[in-house]
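Fold this sequence, please.
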Amino acid sequence: MPKPLLTARYRVVVRDAQRRIKYIEEAPSKSFILNFLYLWWLNLNLNETDSISVVNTSGQETTMVLYQPMGWYKFVGGAAAPYSGIQVGSGTSAPSASSPYLESLIVNGTNPGQLEYSADNPTSPSVSSNPGTLVDSKTFTNNSGGTVTVGEIGFAVQANNGSEGIHMAALIIHDVLSSTVSVPNGGTITVTYTLQVNT
């Protein structure tokens, strides 16, 4: 049987405030979603009426129109666009291919129920062997004062409405963990996605 041409895996590591490992999970990603296909569609047929479902810099679900010929997507998140790259949420429902968002996004911050999003750490794609790989990881720190529960993760690309300078995040992969995990106050959760292309 031929290998899938495009695959993804994730790895989740939870540490407590003393940086001791409390939980590890690694599994194949099963849920590329509609936005992944829509990105290709927009590349093929981009005009001023095309739009995509995104999360804005406040973590709110919305849509945005993308204007040609702006270069408009990348993986790296950060202060300007914390939800691009890897996202985490508290939802536990099975992902739907037609759903463009996490079920319940955990918002970037230090208030109860929130996690602080660091910048993503993507590697340059490697094509020296088969399969070729791209790896991205992000660490989320819990400074909320209490435990934060994570049940879902996702991978997004940053969408840039160049005419208005707006940075938003379009989810392309959505995975639910085998069980919810608790991130203790002062602890961290690090999520790594590895994308592979077989030839």
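The chain has a mean pLDDT of 87. Residues 6-197 form one domain.
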